[in-house]
Design goal:
This protein is α+β, with helices and mostly antiparallel strands. It folds into three domains: about 120 residues, no CATH class; about 100 residues, Orthogonal Bundle (Helix Hairpins), CATH 1.10.287.130; about 130 residues, Histidine kinase-like ATPase, C-terminal domain (Heat Shock Protein 90). Helix content is about 60%, strand content about 15%. The protein has ten helices and eleven strands. The strands form three sheets. A five-stranded mixed sheet has the order 6-8-9-11-10.
Length: about 400
């Protein structure tokens, strides 16, 4: 319930709603106050008029009708109406008259004066004036508050646009523009963000150009090396050199994939694959001379996973490569079971929490420290997790 009021728009709506409610209560309260004051003054006025008529009658023996007219009172003379009013007052007072009584009869304020000398029924024609000025003032204030509310909400509209642009930017689209020609604080934020996006876009483009140039330049010596290797007379050395250059060529292709992953400049080609097939393809990527001597693949319960083939095989390949590199006996056990892939080797326990190894260029004695960073990046894209356990001197990495 309280989450509704966490956004800035909700808070503004709440504030303006409270202001309008308070304004409405103030208007209603002022009208009621006017009614109370009018009733008090009217009752006082009626008593003064009655007292004057009584004293005037004692002196002159008649009713001062001119005075009644000046006070907006009238003497009721219609006998039929007087009978009805008398009947009404008797019912109200249980067949007894008071010397002085005031009541409303058929929306008319009737005053009864009853004594030994005379009995009068007067109609008080004074009415509370319609509060036109007050209604106009309150209406103007009400409209001004509404206009102010819509003006404020309109000024916040660029925030929604900026939020959508930031969301688009976070999804990897760098071709966004959110510059504003306005002069408020929101425009300043939008312009600063647009400037930051421009700088990041230029930085990424220069980085991509630099990496692609390096990879392109490396392709030439590798191609020449392969040609030279073909000229070697020894078939064993020829095969070994050929394998080395194939490995280098494969590494450059992997760096190209890494560059795409980190820059989010790619589209996933997700299809269902058997995990055993993915693992075997990953083992082939290692280009080991005797893969079965180093890797023991146990398929207890195979299953299908919807993944991008090239990227996901790169994940398993990097995990296998690290497992062999850091294993004491250079052997790795791969188990496929219960919708999980477990990669196990005998070795020392990780010196830091697993999350620290997800950082790029983590301190490593046997590499650049990019292996688990690449693994984590690809798994995040596939919405899968990597966990780590250490049992009985064995490191266990699990993809689930």
């Amino acid at each position: 319930m309280f989450n509704r009021f966490t956004s800035l728009r909700s808070k503004i709506r709440l504030i303006f709603s409270l202001i309008l409610i308070l304004l409405t209560f103030l208007f209603i309260g002022s009208i009621k106050y006017d009614h109370l004051k009018y009733d008090e003054n009217n009752e006082m006025h009626e008593r003064l008029v009655t007292h004057y008529l009584y004293n005037y009658y004692l002196v002159y023996g008649t009713i001062d009708e001119a005075y009644l007219e000046s006070q907006n009172f009238s003497l009721i003379t219609d006998k039929a109406k007087i009978v009805q009013i008398e009947h009404y007052f008797k019912e109200k007072e249980k067949d007894k008259y008071k010397k002085y009584a005031v009541d409303t009869y058929k929306l008319q304020r009737i005053i009864l004066i009853n004594n030994d000398r005379f009995k009068l029924f007067l109609q008080n024609k004074n009415k509370l004036k319609f509060p036109l000025k007050r209604i106009v003032v309150f209406s103007i204030v009400f409209l001004l508050i509404l206009m102010l509310y819509f003006w404020v909400m309109k000024s916040l509209k660029p925030i929604s646009t900026l939020k959508n642009q930031i969301k688009t930017f976070s999804e990897g689209n760098l071709e966004i523009h959110c510059a504003s020609d306005k002069k408020d604080e929101i425009a300043e934020v939008a312009n600063e963000f647009d400037h930051a996006v421009t700088m990041i876009r230029e930085l990424l483009q220069s980085r991509q150009l630099f990496l692609r140039a390096i990879m392109h330049e490396l392709k030439t010596p590798i191609a020449k090396g392969r040609l030279v290797a073909e000229m070697l007379p020894d078939e064993k050395n020829k095969a070994r050199m050929h394998s080395i250059f194939e490995r280098l060529n494969l590494l450059i292709d992997e760096f190209a994939k890494i560059e795409k992953i980190t820059s989010k400049n790619f589209k996933l080609d997700v299809k269902p694959y058997k995990v055993s097939d993915l693992t075997e393809a990953s083992i082939d990527l290692l280009m080991l001379e005797n893969a079965k001597e180093h890797i023991d693949l146990q398929v207890i319960e195979d299953y299908q996973a919807e993944v991008d083939f090239e990227l996901f095989t790169l994940v398993i390949k990097n995990l296998l490569d690290n497992a062999i590199k850091y294993a004491k006996d250079k052997k790795v056990l791969v188990q496929i079971n219960n919708h999980k892939i477990a990669i196990v080797n005998k070795g020392e326990k990780l010196g830091e929490p697993l999350e620290n190894y997800f950082k790029p260029f983590h301190t490593s004695k046997k590499g650049l420290g990019l292996g688990l960073y690449i693994v984590k990046s690809i798994l995040d894209i596939h919405q899968k997790e990597l966990s780590y356990e250490y049992e009985d001197g064995k490191n266990i990495f699990i993809i689930s």
